[in-house]
Amino acid sequence: MIGLISFVGFTALVAIISYFATRSTDEKSSDGYFLGGRSLTAGVIAGSLLLTNLSTEQIVGLNGSAYTDGLSVMAWETLAAIAMVVTAIFLLPRYLKGGLTTVPQFLSKRFDVATKTITSGLFLTGYVVVLLPVILYSGSVAISGMFNVPEMLNVSDTKALWLCIWGIGIIGSIYAVFGGLKAVAVSDSINAVGLIIGGLLIPVFGLMAIGDGSVSAGIDILMAANPDKFHSMGKPGQEVPFSTIFTGMMLVQLFYWGTNQQIIQRALGAKNLAEGQKGLLLASFLKILGPLILVLPGIIAYHYFKGGLDTSDLAYPELVRAVLPKYLVGFFAAVLFGAILSSFNSVLNSSVTLFGIDIYKQHINKDADEITVVKYGKIFGIVLAVSAMFIAPLIANAGSLFAYLQEINGIYSIPIFTIIIVGYTTKRVPAIAAKIGVISGSLLYILSQFVLKPHFVESALEKATASGVTDEAALNLVEASAYPHFLHVMAILFVLNIIIMLIIGKIKPREEAYELEYTQQVDIVPWKYTKTVGAIIVLIVVSIYIYFA
Fold first, then answer.
1. What is d(CA 320, CA 206) in angstroms, rounded to the nearest whole number?
2. How far apart are alpha carbons 135 and 57 in whole angstroms?
3. pLDDT tens across 510-541, in order?
4. N or C: which end of the chain has fewer CB within 10 A?
5. pLDDT per residue over 157-173, tens digit each?
6. Residue 70: how many CA atoms within 13 Å on its side-chain side?
7. pTM of the model
8. What residues form the membrane-spanning segments (predicted)?
9. What is the separation, in whole angstroms, between the first and last Cα of the chain?
10. Does pLDDT of 195 surpass 80?
């Protein structure tokens, strides 16, 4: 009961603070609703960036990967810090100079409306089909299990799942659809504090359990007993082989933190360039600490349970259940609930923004005023949320989808990132090149990963089995070496798409060179310490890899 009270209390506190913080924002205008009135400051941007990124499938999934592969999976976190530095220095100044509300808006100005529409469609498809239902399902499983909802309400597991899904969905929709970006960002910032505190408690209590009450003793025992788990260099066959850091991994990070509407929308709402850069750099510094929450608990679980769990996805929830004192369960559940809500309402808010600005205003009602655009954006958001709530219970084994989701996202991430990079770094590559680039990029990736790869893997496993190989570890290595890692494939297609676009630009260049206009929406004077702080962050990341090499 104490846990339930603390859960309700913390969740209600976040809602109340968010309500009072957003009362003065004019959410009838596009900027007010979609970008928080372009008034977001560094702390709010940083907190919202971190919470938008975190949800149960990542907290559970990445710790599960660490349970299996150890420290090498920290690349999903540490390289994100470098990507945010690049975004702060190179991409954000261009976004704010152009007064963008959505990333595809730039593509409309640089190429044409059709390119923007294709890109918005790809974004929306990825959000609706993949992200929203998975976030709802995985989050509901975590909350239902933590509070034992079936027993508490005397209902079946299926009914408990439906109740949690609709509870999370409705609350998340209220924030995202009726509160706009500022409500999402403010609630994210408060939850970020809770997540950092709650997330750090798990490894602390885990290390104390290993070290007989001493954190330092726990660290010594953990590292001495499991030296192979503390190597930063991933091996072939693991989720993140070291070579992928220099190919697709960095591209994925640059897309996610620099061009993904769901993420970059927070920085687009900055009151000026300096605040946006400070927010990104603060988030990047905190991201370096991410492995303490998203990787270390998985390694602790491996030692604590002696590698005996049925599946790696149980590593985090089982460790929480084993080491967290009962009186903190409610607070931690509230923090986790905040992380689930954050990811859900952030994706939903971005979907509403893309639809309202890039679809409704552009193609359905070109003469619509701002109030009408916001109104129909909200209607679309409600339909989207309800659809996701119906789809979510149909998803099975969401906890094991972490690595698979990264692979699926390649269908739209690298093609979109390619045309944005070419758009900003060239002046005469035409619109037809962008259309060919984004469509061919998606189709070639689908062909590679979902047609060719299964064929090559199946053939290699058949040969290995026929030659007498039966050991599971050996078969896993055969499977991993049968076809290039999906991150390498992303890098190959990135380069290929750029070459195709540049060739088209050489053969049929646009008549007038593109020039980025300053719309004067916000002040674009950069923060004077951006490059210095960025260099320090990159140096810290490189040092971590060298230390654990």
1. 8
2. 7
3. 988 998 888 888 888 999 999 999 999 999 99
4. N
5. 788 888 988 888 887 77
6. 20
7. 0.81
8. 6-22, 34-54, 74-96, 117-140, 160-178, 190-210, 240-259, 280-305, 327-355, 376-396, 408-425, 432-452, 485-504, 529-548
9. 47
10. no
CA distance 341 to 338: 5
Half-sphere exposure (CA, 13 Å, Cβ side) for 116?
A: 23
Residue 114: Cβ within 10 Å count: 14
Task: Please give the biggest Cα pair distance in the chain.
Answer: 72
Give dist(CA 116, CA 220) in Å, integer: 53
Structural domain boundaries in the chain: 2-406+528-547
d(CA 193, CA 294): 16
Block residue for tokens 């990963």: 449
CA count, 13 A, side-chain hemisphere, 154: 0
3-state secondary structure 23-49: CCCCCCCHHHHHHHHHCECHHHHHHHH
Higher pLDDT, 228 or 101: 228
pLDDT digits (tens, 9 = 90+) for 97-139: 988 877 778 888 899 989 988 888 887 887 777 778 878 887 7
**Cα(249)–Cα(75) distance, rounded to whole angstroms?**
8
Q: E strand or H helix at 240, and its extent?
A: none
In our burial notation (b when 16+ CB lie closer than 10 A, e otherwise), range 21-52 reads bbeebebebbbbbbbbbbbbbbebbbbbbbbb
User: Would you place residue 329 in the very low, low, confident or very high pLDDT band (cuts 50, 70, 90)?
Assistant: confident
State the amino acid at position 197 in one-letter form: I
